[in-house]
Amino acid sequence: MAQLWGGRFTKETDQLVYNFNASISFDQKFYREDMEGSMAHVKMLAATGILTEDERDQILKGLEGILADVESGVLPITSEYEDIHSFVEANLIDRIGDAGKKLHTGRSRNDQVALDMKLFTRKEIVALKELVKELILVLHNLMKEHTDTYMPGFTHLQKAQPITLAHHLGAYMEMFKRDYGRLDDIFERMNYCPIGSGALAGTTYPLDRNMTAQLLGFKGPTLNSMDSVSDRDYVIELLSAMSTIMMHLSRFSEEIIIWNSNEYQFVELDDAYSTGSSIMPQKKNPDIAELVRGKTGRVYGALMQILTTMKGIPLAYNKDMQEDKEMTFDAIDTVKGCLALFTGMVKTMTVNKDKMESSAKNGFTNATDAADYLVNHGVPFRDAHGIVGQLVLYCIDKNISLDDMSLEEYKKISPVFEEDIYDAISLQTCVEKRTTIGAPGKVAMENVIALNEDWISKLN
To answer: Which of 62, 204, 221, 249 is deepest in the core (most CB within 10 A)?
Structure first.
C-alpha cells in the first residue's frame, strides 16, 4: 500500500480501512490535472530558489515521462496506491530518485486535490458550454425556418392561443442562453488558484502563488488558505447549473414525446434517435427523449448529495469532502451525453407543419381573438367572453372549428359579427398582429432572431 504519511504510524492500516479511505478508483481521473499542477508548482519552486534548476529539470522530465506512459497505457494506475497523488509521487521517486522527494515541498494533499478538482471542473465547464452552444445554434436555425409554422400554444396542457414553432422554440432558446450564462459565471467565480494554501494555514516557504496561478491560467491565487482547501461551492454551483440544464432538457423532452405521439403527430423523430418494440412492429419509441427525462433525477441526486455532505463540515478540510468527486463526475458525463444526443435528436426530427396548423385551428386557439373582435365593435369584454363561449359550445356540438362557421351561424349568436370576422380569427392574423418584442408575430420574431444572432456572434 503506497502511502505518503506512514511516519507517524507503527503498524499497517487494516486493508478494509485502507480500501474505504482510498480514492484512487475515482481520482485517477485527475492524472493529467495532477501532473500539470505539479509541473507548475515545480517551476515556481525553482524560480523562488527553493529547488535548483537541475532538480526542476529532473522532476519535469520525470513527470512528462509518467504522463506519456499513462496515456500510452504503458503505466497503469492501480489500486496499490491510495490516491492519484501517491501514484504520481511514488513513480516519480522510482524514476529519478531523491529529487522526486522534493516535489511535495510547500504544499499539502489538501491544496493539491483542491487544485486538481478546480482544473478538472474548469475544463468540463468549457466542454459543457460548447455543448450548450451547439444546441443553441440548432434551435436558432430551426427558429429561422419556422417563423410561419403555426401551432397551438398551451396552458395547463390545453390549447390556448395560436403561436408559431419559432416562438415555442424561442422559449427554450432563452432558457439555454441563461444556462450558458450560468456556466460562464461559475467559471469566472471559481477561476482562482488554491495551490500554496497547504493543509490549511499556508506554508513558511517563500512561494510565489501569483506565478503558479498564472502558469495554470487562473486569474490569481485564492485569498484565504482555509477557504481554499475546505469549500466546494463551485462544485455545488456547477451541479445546480447542470440540474437546471437537465430540467430544461427534460421539459423539452416531455413535449417532444407528446408531439411524437400518434394523437399529435407534430413531429417525427429520425430513426437514428428512436427504437422499436420487441413485440409490436408498428412502434417507434422516443427513447432518447425518455432517457433524458429519466436521467434528470440522477443529476438532481448528485446536487443533493454534495449539499448534504458539505452542510455540517467545520473548517478546514475533512475527509467527507472526498465525496465531492464520484457523483460529480457521473453528473458531468450524464449532462454532456444528454446534451449531445438531445441536440442530434432535435436537429434531425421532421416537423409536420400541416398537423400543427390543423391542431391550432381545431383547438379554438383563436377564441380570444374572436372576443377581441367583438370588443373592437363596441361589445363589453365580459359580454364578448360569454358570446364566444356560446360559439365554442356550438362548434363542439357540430364538430367544427370557428373558421368553419357560416356568417349566418355567427349572426344567430350575435348580430355584431360581419364578414371581416374570418380575417380577424385567421391563424395568420391572430399571430401576426402580435408584434411587441417577445410576441410570436413574424416581425417580432425576426427582431429576436437578429438579437440572438448578435448574441451568438459574441460567444467565447
So the answer is: 249
Active-site pick, 72, 261, 277, 377: 277
Q: In whole angstroms, how large is the CA radius of gyration of the chain?
A: 31
DSSP three-state, residue 244 = helix
Q: What angle do CA 273, 278, 279 make, to 5 degrees?
A: 130
Give the per-residue pLDDT at 9.
Answer: 46
Q: Which pLDDT belongs to residue 283?
A: 59
Mean pLDDT, the chain, rounded, equals 92
Q: Give the burial class of 263: count Cβ atoms within 10 A of its Cβ; 0-12 exposed, 13-18 middle, 19 or more buried.
A: exposed
- pLDDT, residue 388, reads 94
User: Dihedral angle at the C-alpha atoms of 148, 150, 155, 161, nearest 10 degrees?
Assistant: 90
pLDDT at 22 (0 to 100)? 60
385 is catalytic: no
Q: Nearest Cα to 239, choosing from 177, 321, 193, 307?
A: 307
Tell me the β-bridge partners of 152: 162
For this structure, is 156 an active site residue? yes
For the record, the C-alpha cell of 295 comes out as: 436521467
Enter the DSSP assignment of 320.
G
Higher pLDDT, 407 or 15: 407
C-alpha cell at 276: 422499436
Res 281 pLDDT > 90 = no
Per-residue cell: 287:
427513447
Cβ-proximal residues to 86 (8 Å cutoff; 6+ apart), any chain: 2, 3, 4, 24
**Over the stretch 216-237, which tens digit does the pLDDT of each residue have?**
999 999 999 999 999 999 999 9
Q: How far is it between the farthest Cα atoms of the chain? A: 101
Q: Are strands 150-155 and 158-164 parallel, antiparallel or unpaired?
A: antiparallel
Residue type (1 letter), 250: S
Which cell goes with 381?
Answer: 369584454
Question: Which is catalytic among the residues 156, 278, 406, 457?
Answer: 156
